[in-house]
Amino acid sequence: REGRPAAVETRHLIQDTLPTEGSPPTPVATVSPPTPVATVSQYACQRRTTLENHNKIFTEAFEVLAESYEFNMNEGQCLAFRRAASVLKSLPWAVLSLGATQDLPCLGQHTKKVMEEVLYYGRSFEVDNILSDERFQTLKLFTSVFGVGPKTAEKWYCRGLRSFSDILADRSIHLNRMQQSGFLHYGDISRAVSKAEALSLRNIIDGAVHAITPAAAVALTGGFRRGKEFGHDVDFIVTTPELGKEDRLLLNIIDGLKRQGLLLYCDYQASTFDMAKLPNHRFKAMDNFSKCFLILRLESSQVEGGLHSVEGDSRGWRAVRVDLVSPPLDRYAFALMGWTGSRQFQRDLRRFARAERRMLLDNHALYDKNKKEFLAASTEKDIFAHLGLEYIEPWQRNA
Ligand code: DCT
Ligand code: MG
């Protein structure tokens, strides 16, 4: 790898800049609601939410509250604050008074009280209390480790553990392989991944895929497809036109990455997808497609403009979290839709489908309960059309 003419070689490999499917227009910001205020839907999938957030002071407060409720297993309140944040993110204007929120959906008494504090004092005391709470701080720290969820974090907290050194010094704690890698690469993978790093990874995955079969395809998805400049990982969908070869493709990619010395961690999950078991009446957090959660070694020389690294880091490489999913080709549109996110946008798409259309949507399929049949889709546009929704571009799905 050393000595390759990086600047020349990587530049022609980078195919285009993101987002690829139409670019956001130059934003025109206003600070007051246009009169009359256009009706704002309660569903994120009927709103266009770009990365331009005019109400950060409120949404950041709501996100702290949502996370705190999540740690306390209070799903209802957690979702209420996530919904409220999402509504405010979609507004092309900044809320300057409570009066301006009168016609907005999903804002209850509690959210309005927080907004009132923020408007009056520039801060919410409830949020300040959470941020200075030892339990919240500790759970936030523990869940920032790859492989550590709220339940494990809570367990460790209840044992009196408060820091990483407490955990690593406790002989009674058995870390699984994922958590061991999480601690090993903590410095790197807790640092944001830049768009240039994501594009360079796309070239690497693209190379690995095409060395196997030229017929396979790679698509960048997740937050980067929505136009984000930074992400916590990089998500890809890989597909092969040969039905039933999805597991094989993924295993071959993993093998290729390993031979290049790029594989630092790999958790591979074979497909458990079975069309005969659909539709899912209850939504499951994880889809059944063949997938792998990786930590890859990314060389600075492969990234245009170099790594997004910290001062004084002279290693010339960093570890990055990468997810690869490989759905069967006829499931591609549903998988792409789900993995493009945002989580809130997808949550509301499914809620809209169920409540307004009597349809069941997930990463695998769309089922019409009235007609008792599955609706086929080869593009995301097909899915929006089946649901009777206006098409929303990926960069407008930042709900
Ligand atoms: N997703 C999914 N099933 C999972 C995990 C994720 O359908 N088991 C979807 C939801 C959003 C998308 O995939 C990408 O997930 P993240 O990487 O967590 O979110 P992101 O929007 O890409 O944000 P980030 O920039 O932090 O990576
Ligand atoms: Mg992501």
- The overall pLDDT, averaged over residues, is 92
The fraction of residues assigned to DSSP E strands is: 5-15%
Distance between the termini: 40 Å
Instruction: Tell me the number of strands.
Output: 10
Please give the largest β-sheet: 5 strands, mixed
Radius of gyration: 22 Å
Give unreliable regions as ranges: 1-20
| Spatial strand sequence of the major β-sheet | 2-4-7-6-5
Judging from the principal axes of the Cα atoms, what is the shape? Answer: globular
What is the count of helical runs?
16
Distinct ligands: 2',3'-dideoxycytidine 5'-triphosphate, magnesium ion
The helix content, as a percent range, equals 40-55%
Secondary-structure element order, N to C: HHHHHHHHHHEHEHEEHEEEHHEEEH
Going by helix content, strand content and strand pairing, the class is alpha+beta
Summarize the structure in words.
The structure is a single chain. By secondary structure, this protein is α+β, with helices and mostly antiparallel strands. About 40% of the residues lie in helices and about 15% in strands. The protein contains 16 helices and 10 strands. It has helices spanning about 5-15, 55-70, 75-90, 110-120, 125-130, 135-145, 150-160, 165-170, 175-185, 185-190, 195-210, 220-225, 245-260, 330-340, 345-355, 380-385, and strands at about 195, 215-220, 230, 235-240, 265-270, 290-300, 315-325, 360, 365-370, 375. A 5-stranded mixed β-sheet has the order 2-4-7-6-5, sandwiched between helices. The chain has a 3-stranded antiparallel β-sheet with strand order 8-9-10. It has a two-stranded antiparallel ribbon with strand order 1-3. Helix 2 runs antiparallel to helix 3 (about 75-90), helix 2 packs across helix 5 and helix 11 (about 195-210) packs across helix 13. It is globular and about 60 Å long. Magnesium ion binds near residues 222, 223, 233 and 235. 2',3'-dideoxycytidine 5'-triphosphate (DCT) binds near residues 285, 338 and 342.
